[in-house]
């Protein structure tokens, strides 16, 4: 007898979950535990660093090993008399918010592994030693750490497929659809965490180029556009190279530094967007010119 399609997918969910729990066990019970033990002996790296690398992997491991996997196994054993997984996945979904922290921390974690492997030979050797073990299957710690980042999208795909294959009259239909909706929200939540992290990293990079001026550094700002611009001097009819950063709330008029120590630009003028006026000019000598005026000053600028 051919197994129904939805059961095949449910079994695939169970099999991948089992493999995933093994991977989490490796991360939490082997890598984290052994690195932590060595850190406590003061031999490799500070304990804080190990904690920062592994973020909240322990909670994630405990949740999957002690709760989700056993529940899923029970469901699959009872499949013949009670073919459903939607209710279990609904219980799982809210807990997947735990991943937000792990995902947000992932890039920093990988960076820390690189930095401390260079700084501390014992740290590097211990990781290499664990990676040689059979359980690691010739893959690096970084590779294993990527697994939780990819797990939620995997649930989403499997469940989408499961819902698609369910016969209309299946007793699991309502639950499975609701579960899919919940997983979708969590996936969005975790993507939003990544996007927010990238936005802040880019913003910080811009602030560094501007020399970290106190009144400019604000995490809620959003960079909209940046680029070179020519400043027109009406006195002697010449232009000089300047640089603009347009944020959601301010325009920064900058001068590129000749000697770039620390910062790349010096901020000459800050114009707040809410009192800023922009007016196009039809200047025969200088095409693509416009006026930008703030409270203090008006600038005549020429774009490329």
TrEMBL record:
It is found in: Cytoplasm, Cytoskeleton. CDD domains: RhoGEF (cd00160). Residues 5-193 form the DH domain. SUPFAM superfamilies: DBL homology domain (DH-domain), PH domain-like. GO terms for biological process: cytoskeleton organization; filopodium assembly. Pfam families: RhoGEF, SOS1_NGEF_PH. Residues 222-304 form the PH domain. PANTHER family: FACIOGENITAL DYSPLASIA PROTEIN, FYVE, RHOGEF AND PH DOMAIN-CONTAINING PROTEIN 2. This is FGD2 protein. The lineage of its organism: Eukaryota, Metazoa, Chordata, Craniata, Vertebrata. The gene is Fgd2_0.
């Amino acid at each position: 007898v051919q197994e129904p399609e939805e059961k095949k997918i449910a079994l695939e969910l169970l099999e991948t979950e089992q493999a995933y729990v093994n991977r989490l066990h490796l991360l939490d019970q082997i890598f984290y535990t052994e690195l932590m033990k060595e850190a406590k002996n003061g031999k490799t790296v500070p304990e804080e660093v190990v904690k920062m690398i592994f973020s909240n992997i322990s909670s994630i491991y405990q949740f999957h090993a002690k709760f989700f996997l056993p529940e899923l196994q029970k469901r699959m054993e009872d499949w013949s008399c009670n073919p459903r997984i939607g209710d279990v996945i609904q219980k799982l979904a809210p807990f997947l918010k735990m991943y937000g922290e792990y995902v947000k921390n992932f890039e920093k974690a990988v960076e820390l592994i690189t930095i401390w492997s260079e700084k501390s030979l014992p740290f590097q050797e211990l990781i290499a030693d664990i990676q040689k073990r059979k359980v690691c299957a010739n893959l690096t710690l970084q590779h294993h750490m990527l697994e939780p980042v990819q797990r939620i999208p995997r649930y989403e795909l499997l469940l989408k497929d499961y819902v698609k294959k369910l016969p209309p009259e299946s007793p699991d239909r309502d639950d499975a659809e609701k579960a899919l909706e919940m997983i979708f929200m969590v996936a969005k939540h975790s993507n939003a965490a990544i996007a927010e992290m990238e936005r802040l990293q880019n913003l910080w990079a811009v602030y560094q180029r501007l020399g970290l001026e106190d009144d400019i550094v604000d995490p809620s700002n959003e960079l909209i556009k940046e680029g070179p611009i020519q400043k027109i001097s009406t006195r002697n009819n010449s232009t000089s190279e300047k640089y603009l950063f347009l944020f959601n709330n301010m325009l920064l008029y900058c001068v590129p530094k000749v000697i770039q120590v620390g910062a790349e630009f010096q901020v000459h003028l800050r114009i707040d967007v809410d009192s800023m006026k922009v007016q196009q000019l039809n200047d025969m000598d200088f095409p693509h010119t416009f006026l930008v005026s703030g409270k203090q000053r008006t600038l005549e600028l020429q774009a490329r």
